[in-house]
Write the structure tokens for this entry.
Amino acid sequence: MTSAAPSFELLPGAGESPVILHVPHSAREMPPEVRAGIVLDDGALERELDHIVDAHTAELAEEAAGASAVTPWRFVNRLSRLVVDPERFPDQREEMLAVGMGAVYTRTTHLAELRPADTDPGPLVERYFRPYAKAMTEAVADRLAATGRAVIIDVHSYPTARLPYELHGAGPRPPVCLGTDPFHTPPELLAAAREAFAPCGETGLDSPFSGTYVPLEFYGKEPRVAALMIEIRRDTYMAEPGGPVGPGLTRLAQALAALVDTAASR
């Protein structure tokens, strides 16, 4: 299985910055050989991408990086999460398997068939998931070697209304949701995020999405790796679903830049 499109890109920041802005779900691109395994017609696939893509989050991270006093590093997925989702466990530990959304999705956001249920995820995991995970692991290791620590800020968005695939979507849906991990999210990083995003409206904690992304080599083992997930409700910066960006993006980028600068200085 081959593809001319890059699966991901590491965009260098300042050598002294420990911060990596991780943007895993912003892209719509799918290699033709992957598209061939999708059962949706073209119109239905575009509608699914409208719902599942964290639209404009790569643009948000880029604008925030440009506004930061110390430029963070950016690790950006250049392929759709419908190819593989790099933030899922690639095995039976993944709770989203219950709705057909493990590392390789077989169901859509509305629980319709995306791929046949008996699709073997192995080839896609080997071709796309494992190289992504390896590269992200190396990016974190590089920040640890260069600065003595690493701060992963995961940049996501989520829809205003709950979608059927959400396992934990019954709770609050604030303008900004902060996802945390008991081992990797220090109180000072969480406090910095609350302060930075205060001008953007209410910030909530771990609802409707929780947790953070940390490469498995470091997860639960390396306290020098801090992590926080930023989930932004889409109506605050764009037209839903899948529509154009609005003026709210600049305010959010400024907030994210403020968080980056605080995280880099501590």
